[in-house]
Each structure stands twice: as structure tokens, then as C-alpha cells.
Design a protein that fits this description.
single chain, alpha/beta, 3-stranded mixed beta sheet
């Protein structure tokens, strides 16, 4: 659990937000954000996560690092999250592990790289990920660094790609591809 109110939940609309409050049984401290962008996908988790990070950076200037987790994740211990997020970003390393599932590999790893990155950067990403055989989803807390976030949004042309953004275009995968393509972070394979 967090010992402060720096936990932000992102809702698709006011109705979803109210439904959450109506069913809330735990006493947890959090703030909430209602996405005011048009949601193009029936499962808009990726868009809502990117929107939430952008909202925090636009409205909370003292925050430099944002960790993003799924709402169904459970915190099992309390520690200094801002410090941990900074440590993760300071390493400039994304951890990955081999993936054998070709369905996931194609839909969630290769297709987003083709869809949102130019040919030169696609080849850098392909080489970095060993021909897309290394998967990085949740080997570490997905943490965004303010230093690179707006450049990432500009690179993928966020406002214009929204209609093409699907559930399988995982937000943090897109962000890590951007970091590799610009040489900001490296990929380390865990065995």
C-alpha cells in the first residue's frame, strides 16, 4: 500500500469512476483521473495508461518518474516508490526474457514496432530484441521518465495514432522501443 496519495487511477468516463467508488470496500488513498480523450478501442487500457502518465506530467510538476501498473495488481509491500522508480530509470536498462509464443510475439511485439516506428528504428528495435524474441512485459515495474516521455509522444505522433492504437499495442512496449531506438536505454536479457 502507498502511505501517501500519489496513486492515480485512470477511468474511461465518469460512470466507470462512480461505479468504482460505489464498489470500493478498502480504505485506500488515491487520486483519480477521468480520460477526456475519445476512446477508439473497446479495451482502451493502453490509451488510458499513456493518458494518465501525460496527465500526471502535465499537472504534477514535481513528479519525474511514473510507475504504471494494471488496476488488478496487488501491492504486497510498502517501500519508497518514488525512490525505487528513480533507481529503475537511473539504470537505463530494460530487463527481458525469451518468449516462445509466436502469437504473442507477432501481435504484441512485432506488429507494434512495424506500426509505429520508421524502418531505421524498426531495424534497431529488431536487433536490440534479438529479432523480437525477447519480451520485457513486467520483468520490472514499468516506469516512465519525464525526461523522455514527451519526446516519445511526439515520436509516435500520439494524437494522430489514437484511432490505430489497439489493446495489443502495449504502452510500455512502445515506450521501450522508443528508448532503444534513440539509444537512451539498453536491453538486458535475464536467464
Amino acid at each position: 500500500h502507498f502511505d501517501d496519495d500519489n496513486l492515480y487511477l485512470v477511468f474511461s468516463n465518469e460512470e466507470e469512476c462512480q461505479l468504482f467508488f460505489d464498489k470500493l470496500k478498502e480504505d485506500i488513498r488515491f487520486k483519480y483521473i477521468v480520460c477526456d480523450e475519445e476512446l477508439y478501442c473497446s479495451k482502451p487500457m493502453t490509451q488510458k495508461k499513456i493518458f494518465g502518465v501525460k496527465w500526471v506530467y502535465d499537472n504534477v510538476p514535481e513528479v519525474d518518474y511514473v510507475g504504471v501498473i494494471d488496476v488488478d495488481s496487488r501491492f504486497v509491500r510498502n517501500f519508497d516508490y518514488p525512490k525505487r522508480f528513480e533507481e529503475i530509470c537511473d539504470k537505463k536498462t530494460i530487463y527481458g526474457s525469451p518468449i516462445a509464443d509466436n502469437g504473442v510475439r507477432t501481435k504484441c511485439i512485432i506488429d507494434p514496432a512495424r506500426k509505429f516506428f520508421n524502418e531505421i528504428d524498426f531495424k534497431i528495435i529488431q536487433q536490440t530484441t534479438r529479432n523480437f524474441t525477447i519480451y520485457t512485459w513486467f520483468n520490472e515495474i514499468p516506469v516512465y521518465d519525464r525526461k523522455y516521455f514527451y519526446e516519445f509522444l511526439d515520436y509516435i505522433k500520439y494524437t494522430t495514432i489514437l484511432p490505430r492504437l489497439t489493446y495489443a499495442d502495449f504502452d510500455f512496449t512502445l515506450y521501450t522501443y522508443f528508448l532503444y531506438s534513440k539509444g537512451y536505454y539498453k536491453l538486458e536479457v535475464m536467464t
